[in-house]
Specification:
This protein has 17 helices and twelve strands. The chain is α/β, with parallel strands linked by helices. The strands form three sheets. Strands 4-5-6-7-8-9-10-11 form an eight-stranded parallel barrel, surrounded by six helices. Strands 1-12 form a two-stranded antiparallel ribbon. The longest helix is centred in the C-terminal third of the chain and has 21 residues. The chain starts with a helix and ends with a helix. Bound molecules: flavin mononucleotide.
Length: 373
């Protein structure tokens, strides 16, 4: 790990603008500390084994159409990085891999590059290395208040984006010492943005999930999709906890909110209940089996962030190895449930147990109907 540290984190923090420095601190913590939720909610979902699948495993198709594009599998690498000089290679490694595999990716928040154009190359590299792939641009909901139309155009042009992700990360902002907690007017700004951007806009949480109540507020917007970014995977409260640990000037509230959020599988179900737009299931997707579970619950696509970070610090082949493993596991899950086509996963029976069952029952979602379908 020492070598990786030198490679990614070699620039003295004093030389960096604040946003850029924060990005690299997050990356460093995510690569070195345990930053995941205490509970893996996808483990509470069980797919029912089919002892007589009656399909040819070689003929299983993972191909998925999403936002008018075809993908080899319903898997994308979620928004993570860019915005610090040393992240250029990380983004390049992810981009080369998804281009090779026919998948999609998002870049991390492009805010730092708006402030400092020399950082644009840390994002531009993605389009350079993945000229044919589906790339999502990224900016925070709070930031769009401060941005002009030209700024949004710059963000999109920087990666020649196929979609624009607007992230909601109020949990992180709230527990972060320098966080921005003014959420006023965000919905109106998102609405205006949707009306004025000519690529699909995706609303994206970053690990605390989206509820049916929030979906109802978003329902009438011209959204292209929704990325649930639910709880059960990376906890940004945990990330901030480690950041504050190093600086005892600040009050450390991160541990209290470590497991805050809507479980990712519950968020998929709640969003699907309200929305008939494409849904990305994400937050704690840790295998191809989890991908199958997310699709079975109603997601169209899945997003993976943390498991890609360490491989991306090493090289393109390392990223591809992880993604190929996900693809293989997804295929096995489909074979063992007798599912030949990815869209048919949505009809297979599944069990929901444990904490997830309790959460869903209390939210008025009948879990039995999934077991009996
Ligand atoms: C190091 C790191 C940096 C991230 N930066 C961003 C970001 O800039 N913008 C964003 O929308 N999400 C960001 N995320 C959140 C992820 O896109 C994803 O929603 C979240 O980590 C949950 O997925 P996971 O459990 O697979 O990690 C970041 C995640 C990680 C691990």
């Amino acid at each position: 790990m020492r070598m990786l540290k030198n490679f990614v984190f070699g620039i003295p923090p004093t030389k960096l603008v604040r946003t850029s420095r924060r990005k690299i601190e997050h990356l460093k913590i995510c690569a070195n500390k345990s930053v995941e939720s205490s509970h893996r909610y996808f483990d509470d979902v069980i797919l029912i084994h089919n002892a007589l699948p009656e399909i040819d495993g070689e003929k299983i198709s993972l191909r998925k159409r999403f936002l008018n594009r075809d993908f080899t599998a319903p898997i994308m690498v979620s928004s993570m990085t860019g915005g610090h000089p040393k992240t250029e290679r990380v983004n390049a490694n992810i981009a080369k891999s998804i281009e090779e595999l026919g998948l999609a990716m998002g870049v991390g928040s492009q805010r730092a590059a708006l402030k400092d154009p020399t950082l644009e190359r840390t994002f531009k590299i993605v389009r350079k290395k993945a000229p044919n792939s589906f790339i999502c641009a990224n900016i925070g909901a709070q930031q769009i208040k401060e941005l002009k139309k030209e700024d949004i155009e710059r963000i999109v042009d920087m990666v020649e984006a196929n979609a624009l992700c607007i992230h909601l990360n109020f949990l992180q902002e709230a527990v972060q010492p320098e966080g921005e907690v003014n959420g006023e007017g965000c919905l109106r700004m998102i609405e205006a943005l949707c009306d004025n951007v000519d690529i699909p806009v995706i609303i994206k949480e970053t690990g605390a999930g989206i509820s049916r109540e929030v979906c109802k507020k978003l329902k009438n917007l011209k959204l292209g999709g929704i990325d649930v970014g639910g709880a059960g995977g990376t906890s940004f409260s945990a990330v901030e906890y480690y950041r504050v640990l190093k600086n005892r000037r600040f009050l450390n509230v991160g541990s209290v909110f470590w497991d805050w959020g809507i479980p990712a599988p519950a968020s998929i179900l709640e969003c699907r209940e309200v929305m008939d737009i494409p849904i990305i299931g994400s937050g704690g997707i840790r295998s191809g089996l989890d991908v199958a579970k997310a699709i079975a619950l109603g997601a169209d696509m899945t997003g993976i962030a943390l498991p890609i970070l360490k491989p991306a610090l090493k090289g393109e082949k390392d990223v591809s190895m992880v993604l190929k493993k996900y693809i293989k596991e997804l295929k096995i899950a489909m074979f063992l449930t007798g599912t030949e086509d990815i869209d048919d996963l949505n009809n297979i029976p599944l069990l929901i147990k444990g904490d997830l069952k309790e959460y869903l029952s209390l939210r008025g979602i009948d879990v039995k109907r999934f077991a009996l379908r």
